[in-house]
Design brief:
Elements (H helix, E strand, L loop, with lengths): L17 H48 L2 E4 L2 E4 L3 H6 L8 E6 L5 E4 L18 E7 L2 E11 H5 L10 E9 L1 H36 L1 H11 L19 H48 L3 H32 L9 E4 H11 L1 H6 L3 E6 L5 E4 L1 H18 L5 E9 L4 E8 L30 H11 L4 E5 L11 E8 L8
Parallel strand pairs: 9-11
Antiparallel strand pairs: 1-2, 3-4, 3-7, 5-6, 6-7, 8-10, 11-12, 12-14, 13-14
Helix pairs in contact: 1-4, 6-7, 7-11, 8-10, 10-11
């Protein structure tokens, strides 16, 4: 009995709205600063409202102080009609006044006006202001000390000064009304301006982000096979890096698709011949009755399948070397001598079958380079395979690893005693499917193309030279030389 398994649907990942995020960052400070602005406006309006009323209060107390007299040690105040008019209460605020002698006895006015608490010596004729309460009502008080000694005899300076206190208090209702009017005059326009500001912010964001919407519509309107670059000049400067990144991605995607198409076309073209040969040999074997003829057809069939297999492997190796994934393949520290020795050992049996002397020469030093071991093995395999195919029987192929400590290089060479490569052909032999005319050696023409791509991925160059050690003029031979940068010099080992 099979148990059924159910997969829980994955919750959609939350996405952030760029429009909403920008709107939040613009409106949050605005909405936070608005009540702060109201509070600041209220306190500022209160201060502004206090100034004219304070000046009026100072004038009142000054006029009243000028009416204070002292006769025979008795303080009095005769208030004329004009002085009484300025102390008269209006319809909004109540006005209180008080005149007291040096012993704080009431001379005139209201007894409810509180006496000020002064810690320092009073300053005569200096009008001071303070806040107080009368009958549980807040008032603003202006007060001044009158030096009675100078009033009686201005030329008399000696003796202990005697002060009379004059106070005028006023309730705060008119101040509050004026402050409210100022606040209303400032706040009400803000209630109108705020929605307008929000609308303008919304409109500005919509207009500002419209190039993104236009870019989205432009990309959606493209054909599926259209991988041409997007015009970066038609978008704002802030979006240009995104467009350039998209263009880079489109270029890589186009290159990848072209490589895939090229691989499919090459594979289809190159596989026609071996597949046709295999089909012909199989049909021929089916019609044969002679055992020897059948055996011969089967041998040809096996040979064709081996050729097709090798061609497929080389096409796949070339495709891997050309794709963008090859650039991301990890590089690591490699001991070049050890890697080359292992690869040569794998080809010894094939060389003996062809009666070719396969040799390996290396210095007894450690040559460390950075590279991808799989790709480097593939490169050396193709170089050795190419050398063995073109070297005649009783010839020799030598793989050599040596160091150039002065240049900090590790040198890999594959030398053969084959027919050599003419100078006019050396720039073409690394092209895919290129074959030198006049050679009857079987091959796909992909081996050296694979070598070139792997060398490009490792950032090294390939030199193609003649074999200076060849003694037979008919077979000048070839020398493939690849130089890698050493991780450290020999003297550091």
């Amino acid at each position: 009995m099979l148990a059924k398994t159910t997969e829980s649907p994955q919750e959609p990942s939350s996405q952030h709205s760029l429009f909403g995020e920008i709107l939040d960052w613009m409106l949050m400070p605005l909405l936070l600063l608005w009540p702060i602005s109201i509070a600041i406006t209220y306190f500022a309006s209160t201060s502004i409202a206090n100034e004219p009323f304070d000046r009026s209060l100072e004038d009142r107390v000054t006029v009243l102080a000028q009416q204070v007299k002292e006769n025979d040690g008795i303080v009095s105040a005769q208030l004329p009609l004009s002085a009484r008019d300025i102390l008269r209460a209006d319809d909004v605020d109540n006005v209180y006044f008080q005149i007291s002698d040096p012993q704080q006895n009431l001379v005139a006015g209201d007894l409810d006006v509180p006496y000020p608490i002064e810690e320092e010596k009073p300053i005569p004729w200096s009008v001071l202001l303070r806040d107080a309460q009368i009958r549980n009502t807040e008032v603003r008080v202006a007060y001044v000390y009158v030096n009675l000694q100078t009033i009686r005899d201005p030329a008399l300076d000696a003796g202990e000064p005697r002060y009379a206190l004059v106070q005028v208090a006023e309730t705060l209702e008119k101040r509050r009304q004026l402050a409210k009017q100022i606040v209303k005059g400032v706040i009400f326009p803000e209630f109108i301006i705020l929605p307008i500001a929000l609308t303008l912010v919304w409109f500005a964001l919509t207009r500002g982000l419209s190039p993104l919407a236009a870019l989205q519509d432009h990309i959606r309107a493209r054909r599926p096979d259209d991988l041409s670059p997007i015009d970066a000049s038609a978008v704002p400067e802030e979006i240009s890096p995104l467009v350039r990144s998209l263009n880079d991605m489109l270029a890589r995607l186009s290159q990848s698709i072209q490589l895939q198409k090229r691989f499919i076309a090459d594979a289809a073209h190159q596989m026609k011949t071996p597949l046709a040969g295999m089909r012909m040999q199989s049909e021929l074997a089916m019609r044969q009755s002679d055992r020897k003829e059948i055996q011969h057809s089967l041998e040809q069939l096996s040979k064709s399948s081996e050729t097709a297999t090798r061609m497929i492997n080389q096409l796949l190796a070339l495709a891997r070397a050309e794709t963008q994934e090859a650039q991301a393949m990890p590089f690591e520290k490699i001991e070049l001598t050890e890697l080359s020795r292992h690869v040569v050992q794998e080809w010894v049996q094939a060389a003996m079958t062809r009666r070719i002397d396969l040799g390996f020469e290396a210095e007894n030093v450690e040559l460390s380079i950075r590279g991808n071991p799989t790709m480097l093995r593939e490169m050396l395999n193709n170089l050795i395979d190419n050398a063995l195919r073109y070297t005649p029987a009783l010839g020799s192929v030598t793989v050599r690893v040596q160091a150039d400590n002065k240049q900090r290089q590790a040198i890999l060479e594959v030398e053969d005693t084959g027919p050599g490569i003419p100078l006019s052909e050396r720039t073409h032999v690394f092209e895919r499917f290129y074959r030198i005319l006049g050679t009857d050696v079987e091959g796909s023409g992909l081996g050296l193309a694979i070598v070139r791509e792997i060398a490009i991925r490792h950032g090294v160059d390939i030199e193609l030279l003649s074999n200076l050690h060849s003694k037979d003029p008919r077979y000048p031979g070839s020398l493939f030389r690849i130089c890698f940068r050493l991780e450290k010099s020999i003297s550091e080992n």
